[in-house]
Amino acid sequence: FFVMYYLFRPDKETLTNLAPLFAGNTSSPVIHHIKSAAEHIQALYWSDKVFSRPRWRNLLGAFDAMITIAITYTIIIVCACLISKYLREHAARSSKTLCLHRQLYRSIICQAFYPLVSTYTPLGICMFLPIFGINFDWVAIFCPTLCVSHPLFDALILIFCVRNHFQDFSRALQDVITLLSLVVNSILLRIVFTSSHRREIGFYRYLIASFAVSDLIYTCVHFLVYPIPEMYGNAFLLSGHGIFNTRLGASIYCGVYSQATPILVSHFVYRTLNIRRFFVMYYLFRPDKETLTNLAPLFAGNTSSPVIHHIKSAAEHIQALYWSDKVFSRPRWRNLLGAFDAMITIAITYTIIIVCACLISKYLREHAARSSKTLCLHRQLYRSIICQAFYPLVSTYTPLGICMFLPIFGINFDWVAIFCPTLCVSHPLFDALILIFCMKEYRY
């Protein structure tokens, strides 16, 4: 404060020297007014040319700022080295305590060096380079945006570096996405049935409405069940962690989750039964004595997991153990059949979608001479259903597929369980947003 308010205060010489800038007689990325000239923090380092007739008050202010930053980061680097050395020397301590210390260490390192890049470097360029007569006035455009990103990334760094914080953030983010999904899909329904352009879209609007209603139902069920898919050894399990957390609840969620498949394929003239996924999850992936025995260490908390489990709720999880012994040894056909059924359903769905998408694209190219308004509408609808088909492939089917199918080959990425619920609940939100932004009539 002292440096900026007193050492960098304006005086007659600085105001005279900067008059062309404030009068608008020289190019600048910022618009200035001569009346506000005295309200700027300003430093003129030399009364004449560079290194000629120094202005010590302003140079002292710049030197003070430079020394403060240098001392700060010297202390940070020394302490970081000492902490790193301590963590290496005490590796035999409680793994949980050591893990927490490492997470906190990473977070403070990132919190120390991110502002060095985003804030101190651009401000330093503006403050110190003029001492040597060097000017990069375009830095003024980026500087405010970079500086304001500092507090945002401070919080994000702590959330993503500390595992427990990240899990809490994931749950909070899901609640926000759930609320947005309900609002946006409700807006879409209102647009579909009250828009002045609804006659141009015709009866297709009912299919759009069915998608919005399906997404509203899915969002509500997801919130009530809060499903988290997990992997352990060559096993897959999925359970509810919300209000309705029984195995029946998780199976109903899977049935509702799969209802988007027939609606989606209906856009490409295809229909399937949504009861299929419920059957796979509730009957083919039901727990038995062997799966419960194999997963006992996970439910007892004897192995690391991103989800907290209780042994009493073990039987309420959808779970699949693919091999009774090692991978590819003594297969458990009921669970493998369930995984194969889910895989085939998705494969057939997307095969039909791709074939129909190619046929639609070919038709639109061959009938380019049709009414431009009609053709434009068809292209908008085509773009929207393509996006609606492939967004869930990335956000929903891929992370769930990783949890369900990779354990068949003995591969485990348990951290996927943290991201999966948030990605899945984003599906109905983006369904509605895709339609609103792809359809010109709906945007306005």
From TrEMBL:
The keyword Transmembrane helix applies. InterPro entries: 7TM_GPCR_serpentine_rcpt_Srj, 7TM_GPCR_serpentine_rcpt_Str. The keyword Transmembrane helix applies. It comes from the Eukaryota. Coiled coil: none annotated. The chain crosses the membrane at residues 65-87, 108-132, 172-193, 205-228, 248-270, 342-364, 385-409, 415-438. Keywords: Membrane, Transmembrane, Transmembrane helix. PANTHER family: SERPENTINE RECEPTOR, CLASS J. This is G protein-coupled receptor. The lineage of its organism: Eukaryota, Metazoa, Ecdysozoa, Nematoda, Chromadorea.
